[in-house]
């Protein structure tokens, strides 16, 4: 604000000083004139309006100085005019001085309060302007799309992100209706929700499709907030746009993968499961509970499954590994007893992990019962086929053995009955050995079985001792070894210690010393025989036992006879035995 006097520009403060000075001079002039003309009795009161004006224009000290000047001039004029001062002059002067001081103080106090109020208002205005600036900065540069609209849905302000998101410029969007950005298929829903904005429902949000300026479609989460005062019509709408196209695509891809995974698990008859050992609960899919033969459930206590899982298999599931350094594979097969009493084999495959200091397992489950049954059935069929082939092979070999036995027994024209008896004896020995073998599932027998079968009556009478490890004789060697044992037993009964009630037979076998390729050494020892020297029959027995060092089975046979007994030793090679 400027005042021009004679060309120069004077400030407001100088103008106030000039006005105050003029008022003071005019008041002094009036006071002097009033005192000289005889109206001095009321002259002091005439100065009060001037003091008010000066106190309003100036600070308290100039007002006080003007008051004292009026009092001094008034008293001086009265003294000059009357020659003396009366009591009314002094009291009027004092009253004027007090009134002037009070007026100056009140104006000063009011001015201070007004200045303080103005400072507070200015600070608040500054804070509001700062907040508005920050809001505008945040509004313009936010990573989300922001817009304001009136109660009719017309856009009033949009930020840069909204422009970038939609492809429109700010001036193109301002004045447009919000529905301009909404996909046509979504407009009815959007309009219906927008009409529902009120004090009771001040906002809503939904995921919907929007259209850019070029016509392309994108997904966004749109949130509308009603910004009107309560119990009044809406004053405006605040709109937030968040582009969720990538998140939506990822969510749809994840959902599609889950559907494919569920389909694959269902097609493969697999169930998913998880064991939390902190809470001791098991959660699983519907297929998992169906595999266990239980109704579907979100979760079950872990200990509840102990009622259906086989006792021997419960530790595989009911307990966790005490020490695992990192995620480890978990692989177990458990037997589950269903409500009908049938046991099913269930495979649990997955991972074992530690999270937040607690163990857990998770993975898939599959019913292996049919697979196990098929595997066992196939193994049984293959085993049966092998046994049938072995039986056929043995039957075909049996005829060759019988033929060899017939040929080895010397025929005598003078004693046909003896020849027939010897032949029948050998055939019955073969029959006994054959029955012993076919009663065994493997179509083979052990040394102990063959020896115990031949010496059963004498072992029961404690006249025969049998010791040796478990050694199985395979292939056609079993029949030949049985013929050797039968020949030793027959010879002992007829000519050796078993024909004497006091005689003893010890049969033992074991692995030969190192360097013999793992041969089995078989020993037949007779003690306590007759006084006469035992006689070993010539012919068939000599051939079977290998008196010349070539036995019917094995090798390195040795036969030692003495007046009190007999010792026969035979070695069986690795090809003829199975440990």
Automatic annotation (TrEMBL):
The keyword Transferase applies. Its EC number is 2.7.13.3. One of its GO terms (biological process) is regulation of DNA-templated transcription. It is an enzyme of class 2 (transferase). Pfam families: HWE_HK (PF07536), PAS (PF00989), PAS_3 (PF08447). Keywords: ATP-binding, Chromophore, Flavoprotein, FMN, Kinase, Membrane, Nucleotide-binding, Phosphoprotein, Photoreceptor protein, Receptor, Repeat, Sensory transduction, Transferase, Transmembrane, Transmembrane helix, Virulence. Residues 131-188 form the PAS domain. The chain crosses the membrane at residues 36-57, 64-84, 90-107. It catalyses: ATP + protein L-histidine = ADP + protein N-phospho-L-histidine. InterPro entries: HATPase_C_sf, PAC, PAS, PAS-assoc_C, PAS-like_dom_sf, PAS_fold, PAS_fold_3, Sig_transdc_His_kinase_HWE. Residues 204-256, 330-380 form the PAC domain. GO terms for molecular function: ATP binding; photoreceptor activity; protein histidine kinase activity. This is Blue-light-activated histidine kinase.
